[in-house]
Amino acid sequence: MGSTSLREVLTLQFGHYSNFVGTHLWNIEESGFNYSTNTGQGSKVVKELNPDVTFREGLTLNGEQTYTPRLILYDLKGCLGALKQDGHLYDVGPTGAASEYDWHGHVTKEEAPPAEKNKFLKELDDDNDGVDAMETDPCEKVYELDGSVSVWSDYLRLHYHPQTVTLIQEYEYESETTPFDVYQYGERILNKEYQNDFEDKLHFFAEECDSLQGFQILVDSHSSFGGLGSAALDYIHDEFPSKGVLSFGLAPSTRNHDITPFCHRLINTALCVDHMSTYSSLFVPLSLNSTLWSMKPYKPVSPKHLTLDPALDYHSSALLAVAIETLSSSYRLLKGGVNIRDLTDGLAVLGRKVASLSLTAPMVRDGSDTLPGLLKKGLSGNSMTELTPYVSSATREDAYGRHMVFTGIPDPTKSQNTDIGELRNSLTENFSGFDPESCFAFTINGSVKIAAPFPNIFSDEVTTDGCLLSGGARSPEKSVSKMASATSLATSPNLFQTVNELHKQAKRMNLAKFARFQESGLELDDYKETLERLEKLSRAYTYDMEEML
Prior knowledge:
Blueprint: E1 9-14, H1 16-31, E2 35-36, E3 43-44, E4 55-59, E5 65-69, E6 71-77, H2 119-129, E7 165-172, H3 183-191, H4 195-206, E8 214-220, H5 224-239, E9 244-250, H6 259-279, E10 282-286, H7 313-328, H8 340-347, E11 356-360, H9 371-376, E12 385-386, E13 401-407, H10 420-430, E14 440-444, E15 448-449, E16 482-483, E17 485-491, H11 495-507, H12 515-519, H13 524-539, H14 545-548
Parallel strand pairs: 1-6, 1-8, 6-7, 8-9, 9-10, 13-14
Antiparallel strand pairs: 2-3, 4-5, 11-12, 11-17, 13-17, 15-16
Helix pairs in contact: 1-7, 3-5, 5-6, 6-11, 6-13, 11-13
């Protein structure tokens, strides 16, 4: 820890909802860049975070400089909307060739009509093309996109590298006749048809890194993408055994209450959580649905100072992206950061490889508030929103380990009025289980920067700078441009309920009633072994170190 050398992170996204979250994540990260053109070539100016950890420089075929995420993503045919699979950065226009076909006879070419672009994408195109010399940057405007976002590319603001996107051509997005909803479909796809594609892309991005610290994986745990992500993780585990892998199992808040789709999601999730928690360094289930794995009435989380609609993936994914962005700041620091491997190994002790993540965003404060001041005003573990199903802040118990990140507040270790011992005592008092010897807290002065097309999910009592208005309301023509935030990544006894509930519900499934799982090769004995491992995993959260010695 503490090295100033570049330690790259490669991100992988598997599934449509993961790409919803990922799109917000990359938009947010890019919002924090300050592009200066004083040199004539452009440069990245950031104070605390190193954008080269997750972004890479490149050159187009025309010699133009590019800056794109270190990213590989998978989705289904028909899900890109107006986005080209290989992007637009490497378009070079007509080459002068007579024809793209060897055949010189009559050719009939049929094309689907282009996807309709929403107002944001149209104005973004006009701004990039210099049309009408737009006075206001589209990213600084306020857009109402709730009714016009159907796929994640509808609000993608930046460019992806041509090696980033892979579409599974054998399955179509939202197909009712051939749904991609069996775990083994994803395993088979990657291990057969797309194995070479994945290996080539993985090595393309990994081999250009100087000092790869590890991987962050976003995966739809409830669909076939859970199997695809698990197969990819197997390969990473074999090829990069010394690298840290921090995985997030993502699920949208809403669900289909028809019994067969629900049971498919549950079986897929059980298989995915078992595999991903085994081969990841640490696995974090995330959803705004606090009762995700049961047929009980839907119970969305309700963060303070937000008016988000959890039924909209465009909204719910934005909050999860803020949480991942805040957490990942600790391993993207220019100085004094943590390595993913150290972070995960510090929490995944005694087989506890599933962790929970909680968030406060916006962390409402006065402009002069320090961390000790915020703690005195009531910022605590109980005031944070739990994003891991079945973990309740109201029943929070002492944590076995905790990794905390605070953004948008002054560094308490650099304040003349702050005693670091007092700060540690305050953290211990306000966050149960915070042991300075085994828990870490990172403070970052810069706030989380947000810009269009981030959804308008803030209540009107929040100012444009993420503070709280003492009276009145924020103008509807003004959007929140930044906010302080806090995350807590923890392993604690509360996770017994998370894993145990998944095991209990998955155990109720009669596999013989779901023919497509059996036809795909899932044996009953294999499923029973999955359930046994989940039960063993849940027990890891019921004992302490003394009981193991």
